[in-house]
Design brief:
Blueprint (H helix, E strand, L loop, with lengths): L15 E6 L5 E6 L9 H14 L8 E5 L3 H13 L2 E6 L5 H9 L3 E4 L10 H14 L3 E3 L6 H5 L2 H10 L5 E5 L4 H12 L5 E7 L36 E5 L1 H15 L5 H13 L8 E6 L13 H6 L5 H13 L3 H10 L1
Parallel strand pairs: 2-10, 3-4, 3-6, 4-5, 7-8, 7-10, 8-9
Antiparallel strand pairs: 1-2
Helix pairs in contact: 1-2, 2-3, 6-7, 8-9, 8-11
The protein binds pyridoxal-5'-phosphate (PLP).
């Protein structure tokens, strides 16, 4: 790697990890986006939204970026704002992971909470309304509006390009849908490059993007809570299937992957990995299945990886973890199996 001078030069070229393989040659590969600065995929689109606003004359030098965020978008924007000399205000709620908020502040972001009472409900629509109102009042401000910003998906085009450098083709792209940017941006670029994938979106049970009843959920950074508007970045024209995963299954998977392999993935990635692992044998033999791991598990040490936090919310399910561990054993890729035997 050449010498770099900006943190954003470190974005991308994230590793691809073979998590599982069936006897029929179907493989589950994880695009480990936690290897980006900020430990998340979102910095890709944060940079793209700012560059796009600059190109379109919507952000003047020294201007003010405002965004509603559950954490990772805000972290990405904080880096880009620091580098490019913008003021950045993140509109947040108490549902967000505390460490993400602390890190944003460390990088110079101002935090505005939608509710001061410590209510830890997900407040996506209230956050967005406040961000929009704040931007409307300030002539130098630009609301990046990730849910309805075309640059969000464009920010992930490089994910598709990197995947095709590492593997010949992606047959199935299966990943979580929050704004939709990461899944549909990657899918768009695969299609543009003449290598379209079958696209499966994953959202928490309780999220409303794929229909069904809305309700609360704990998977962070993903899904559309009841009452929130589904933005244009959710590109239904590219969605072949939408599936739902419970918090229990998602978190059991993140915990089992950590315990089995020493790989820390976040709760939303746990949901996607669960959906992929439980269906792996249904996919055509020899399929290459890719899941984008939007962030790492280290951000969830106080939640998903904390037994007391999990138990208080009725999310702890050792039997579900055991089931995932059994799937991981059953689908251990041959190369890893051999290395393990040799090591012993
Ligand atoms: C933790 C987490 N989960 C899921 C997602 C998927 O979100 P989106 O659909 O907005 O790309 C992201 C974004 O990268 C994320 O940070």
């Amino acid at each position: 790697m050449p010498l770099v001078t900006r943190v954003t030069d470190l974005i991308g070229r994230t590793p691809l990890f073979e998590l599982a393989a069936t006897s029929t040659g179907t493989r589950l590969l994880l695009k480990l986006e936690q290897f980006n600065p900020t430990g998340a995929a979102k910095i890709r689109m944060a940079r793209e939204m700012v560059l796009d606003a600059e190109r379109r004359g919507l952000l003047a030098s020294g201007g003010h970026i405002i965004e509603s965020t559950s954490g990772n978008t805000g972290l990405g924007l904080a880096v880009v704002a620091a580098e490019r000399g913008y003021r950045f205000t993140a509109v947040v709620d108490h549902h967000a992971c505390k460490d993400k908020l602390r890190a944003m502040r460390a990088m110079g972001a101002e935090l505005v909470y939608v509710a001061d009472d410590g209510d830890d409900n997900l407040a996506t629509s209230a956050r967005e309304d406040l961000a929009e109102a704040m931007a409307a009042e300030r002539p130098d401000a630009y609301f990046t509006e990730q849910h309805n910003n075309d640059a969000n998906a464009v920010g992930y085009y490089a994910v598709a390009e990197e995947l095709l450098e590492d593997v010949e083709r992606v047959d199935i792209l299966l990943s979580s849908v929050g704004t939709g940017g990461s899944l549909f941006g990657t899918a768009t670029r695969l299609r543009q490059l003449g290598r379209p994938a079958h696209v499966i979106g994953v959202e928490p049970v309780g999220s409303i993007a794929f229909g069904g009843e809305g309700g609360p959920y704990w998977q962070s950074g993903t899904g559309t809570p009841p009452g929130a508007t589904i933005g244009t970045a959710v590109d239904y024209s590219q969605l072949d299937e939408g599936v739902k995963v419970t918090d229990v299954a998602a978190f059991a998977t993140a915990r089992a992957v950590a315990a089995e392999l020493g790989l820390m993935i976040g709760g939303s990635a746990g949901g996607s990995v669960h959906a992929a692992l439980t269906r792996l044998e249904e996919f055509p033999a020899g399929s290459t299945v890719v899941t984008i791991v939007c962030d790492g598990g280290e951000k969830y040490l106080d939640t998903v990886f904390d037994d007391a936090w999990m138990a208080e919310r009725d999310l702890l399910d050792p039997a579900a973890e055991t089931e995932v561990r059994q799937l991981l054993h059953r689908y251990t890729p041959a190369s890893r199996r051999t290395e393990l035997v040799e090591a012993r």
